[in-house]
């Protein structure tokens, strides 16, 4: 068994695509219509283009429980998922410099350093540097 696609809820697929590619540096992998304005839209790490795909899932717009769950996780300040980085200080400075808003600056957690940012699409996301 392998992990190939992981979905995250987004309120606006086009806005999410722009944020995840232009700000975070991912690249678009798949993009095809599913009907009613929805798309199967995935991005991948530019460093692992055959690695796991991140599905920018429009579920909060069509499925009330997904909308409620996304809001509850965001309101609690919890990250929806996390991304590994080699140097959290450098990545934090790069993202902050291009306008990404952080709710938690890089913080030492013992075996890792973490920071949490707003993806502008309804989610908090975490970057993690393993120590």
Number of helices: 3
Principal-axes geometry comes out as globular
CATH class: Alpha Beta
> What's the alpha carbon Rg, rounded to whole Å?
15 Å
Count of DSSP E strands?
8
User: Can you tell me the number of structural domains?
Assistant: 1
CATH superfamily: 2,3-Dihydroxybiphenyl 1,2-Dioxygenase, domain 1
Largest sheet: 4 strands, mixed
What order do the SSEs take from the amino end to the carboxyl end, as H and E? EHEEEHEHEEE
Low-confidence segments, given as residue ranges, are: none
> Mean of residue pLDDT?
97
CATH architecture: Roll
**What structural class is derived from the secondary structure elements?**
alpha/beta
| Percentage of residues in DSSP E strands | 35-45%
Q: Look up the CATH topology.
A: 2,3-Dihydroxybiphenyl 1,2-Dioxygenase, domain 1
Q: Which strands sit side by side, in order, in the main sheet?
A: 1-4-3-2
Helix content: 25-40%
| CA-CA gap between termini | 28 Å
InterPro entries: Glyas_Bleomycin-R_OHBP_Dase, Glyas_Fos-R_dOase_dom, VOC_core
Pfam family, one: Glyoxalase
Protein name: VOC family protein
Domain VOC: 2-130
